[in-house]
């Protein structure tokens, strides 16, 4: 098998993401022999020796993978550069390290610049790596960039311009880690590989689609960031809209990066825009009050660390998206996401329309609609809800479930999102990364909501108790259409 050779420079190598996700992911790729010609330079402000950095890497592996096989050999590929983001001299030193590692490990000049640090430095780093010649290489050069990609359309555009002075669009890998999740990647396969679904995947047969991503965690130590973001920018602009795009897009003519991403762009372009007056008819915001989550008493959002005691920031969003194209006219896509809810779960429910006539109606039971449930996490699988005959004398119907669980069939843990995305970036497959056009459209849509919300204080905040399924208006949003949220358990 063709193993990619690569030098990865991780900016923000002493941070949480590197420790929790990136080192363990690279380790798994190494253990599976998907990579062996590689070196990693950890780049961060702190002073560390290579030895100290390697010790950190080993500790991260032991803590987060619970494995230690070959860990010394693995860690020997890691080097450290103590960096000053705004000093040209520091980039020149980094280039020197990169060139040496490149020849030592025979990496063919292939370079991945992974930005896993405060976003205010993204632009500077991209410009500097070009100016100081780090991108001047015989192999490929790719920029992998974490969220947030801007704070609004304007700031994202500004950031994109700066990045593009050093990297072409097809060299930029914008991470949305939901696109690395096994079951998010499965949406397309379920849709486009089954005769059963695609013919029904439209407004004639689908009543509505519900996408819920609920979390039990609060804002933890991220109050400062979250106050400027809220659930809208943190979850809706990226993860939620990406799932909607995958559910709504037309079949691509081929499974290439360009074809898939351009269909997603078209789906996002079809999102119905809202006037200022309409925003609060289509979208609901919430903020958690004190409550009980997993049997533990937790405080209200407004008393969390680094949070304004009168904060107007939303920790919950529910919304109704209309996709104004031929396929979806009239079918609501409901989305819902929040912190400090009752359970940690991401799930998609596709509700099919009722059949024209119910022969099995009786006074106790009404026929329940067919549902296709895609379980993204923590369980991974699919459930199909059908009606079948109730066992016994009378001809009555009863709901039955056909369930497929990803884990139990394959008998192995599905690889983590980051493992897949990192490997894809080394192989040059940008399919599961967001194209600039997707980012731009998502921001424009989200901006139209935040413009209204930021200029009107929500007097009902806090409006949901921690440990619940969100504020009452989120239910009313569906009730007014004659629908309800299917329970997520
Ligand atoms: C991140 C958000 O993008 O996604 C976090 O910044 C959120 O606030 C996280 O907790 C959720 O990801 P997952 O994979 O746990 O659903």
Automatic annotation (TrEMBL):
Alphabetized Gene3D superfamilies for the sequence: Dihydrodipicolinate Reductase, domain 2, NAD(P)-binding Rossmann-like Domain
Domain Glucose-6-phosphate dehydrogenase C-terminal: 189-486
Active-site residues, Swiss-Prot/TrEMBL: 239
One matching Pfam family: G6PD_C
Domain named Glucose-6-phosphate dehydrogenase NAD-binding: residues: 9-186
Annotated NADP(+) binding sites: 12-19, 45, 84-85, 147
Domain of life: Bacteria
Keywords: Carbohydrate metabolism, Glucose metabolism, NADP, Oxidoreductase
EC number: 1.1.1.49
Regions crossing the membrane: none
Annotated catalysed reactions: D-glucose 6-phosphate + NADP(+) = 6-phospho-D-glucono-1,5-lactone + NADPH + H(+)
InterPro entries named in the record: G6P_DH, G6P_DH_AS, G6P_DH_C, G6P_DH_NAD-bd, NAD(P)-bd_dom_sf
UniProt GO molecular function: glucose-6-phosphate dehydrogenase activity; NADP binding
GO biological process: glucose metabolic process; pentose-phosphate shunt, oxidative branch
Metabolic or biological pathway: Carbohydrate degradation; pentose phosphate pathway; D-ribulose 5-phosphate from D-glucose 6-phosphate (oxidative stage): step 1/3
Positions of substrate binding: 177, 181, 215, 234, 339, 344
Keyword NADP set for record: yes
Keyword check for Transcription: no
GO cellular component, one term: cytosol
Record-linked NCBIfam families: zwf (TIGR00871)
Function: Catalyzes the oxidation of glucose 6-phosphate to 6-phosphogluconolactone.
Protein family (similarity comment): Belongs to the glucose-6-phosphate dehydrogenase family.
The protein's name in its UniProt record: Glucose-6-phosphate 1-dehydrogenase
Protein's organism: Peribacillus cavernae
């Amino acid at each position: 098998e063709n193993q990619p050779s690569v030098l990865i420079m991780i900016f923000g190598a002493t941070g949480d993401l590197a420790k929790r996700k990136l080192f363990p992911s690279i380790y798994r790729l190494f253990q599976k022999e998907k990579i062996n010609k590689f070196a990693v330079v950890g780049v961060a402000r702190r002073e560390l020796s290579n030895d100290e950095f390697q010790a950190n890497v080993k500790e991260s592996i032991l803590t987060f993978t619970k494995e230690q096989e070959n860990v010394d050999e693995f860690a020997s590929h890691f080097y450290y550069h103590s960096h000053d983001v705004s000093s040209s001299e520091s980039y020149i030193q980094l280039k020197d390290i990169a060139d040496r590692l490149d020849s030592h490990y025979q990496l063919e000049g292939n370079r991945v610049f992974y930005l896993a640090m405060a976003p205010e430095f993204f632009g500077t780093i991209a410009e500097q790596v070009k100016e100081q010649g780090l991108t001047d290489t015989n192999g490929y050069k790719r920029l992998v960039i974490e969220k947030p990609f801007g704070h609004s359309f304007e700031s994202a555009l500004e950031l994109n311009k700066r990045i593009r002075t050093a990297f072409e669009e097809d060299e930029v890998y914008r991470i949305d880690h939901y696109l690395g999740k096994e079951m998010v990647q499965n949406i397309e396969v379920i849709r486009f590989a089954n005769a059963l679904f695609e013919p029904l995947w439209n407004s004639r047969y689908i009543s509505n689609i519900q996408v819920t991503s609920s979390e039990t965690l609060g804002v933890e130590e991220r109050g400062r960031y979250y106050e400027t973001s809220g659930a809208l920018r943190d979850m809706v602009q990226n993860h939620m809209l990406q799932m909607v795009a995958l559910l709504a897009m037309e079949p691509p003519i081929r499974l290439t990066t360009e074809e898939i991403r351009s269909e997603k762009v078209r789906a996002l372009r079809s999102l119905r825009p809202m006037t200022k007056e309409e925003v609060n008819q289509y979208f609901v915001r919430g903020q958690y009050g004190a409550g009980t989550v997993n049997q533990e008493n937790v405080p209200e959002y407004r008393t969390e660390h680094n949070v304004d005691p009168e904060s107007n920031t939303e920790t919950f969003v529910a919304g109704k998206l209309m996709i104004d194209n031929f396929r979806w006219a009239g079918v609501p896509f409901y989305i819902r996401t929040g912190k400090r809810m009752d359970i940690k779960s991401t799930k998609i429910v596709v509700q099919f329309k009722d059949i024209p006539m119910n022969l099995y109606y009786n006074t106790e039971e009404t026929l329940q609609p067919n549902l296709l449930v895609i379980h993204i996490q923590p369980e991974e699988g699919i459930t199909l809800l059908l009606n079948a005959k109730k066992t016994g004398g009378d001809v009555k119907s009863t709901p039955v479930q056909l369930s497929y669980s990803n884990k139990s069939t394959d008998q192995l843990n599905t690889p983590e999102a980051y493992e897949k995305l990192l490997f894809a970036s080394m192989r040059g497959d940008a399919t599961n990364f967001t194209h600039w056009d997707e980012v731009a459209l998502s921001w424009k849509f989200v901006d139209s909501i935040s413009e209204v919300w930021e200029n009107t204080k929500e007097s009902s905040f806090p409006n949901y108790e921690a440990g619940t399924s969100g504020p009452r208006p989120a239910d009313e949003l569906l009730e007014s259409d004659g629908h309800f949220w299917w329970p997520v358990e």
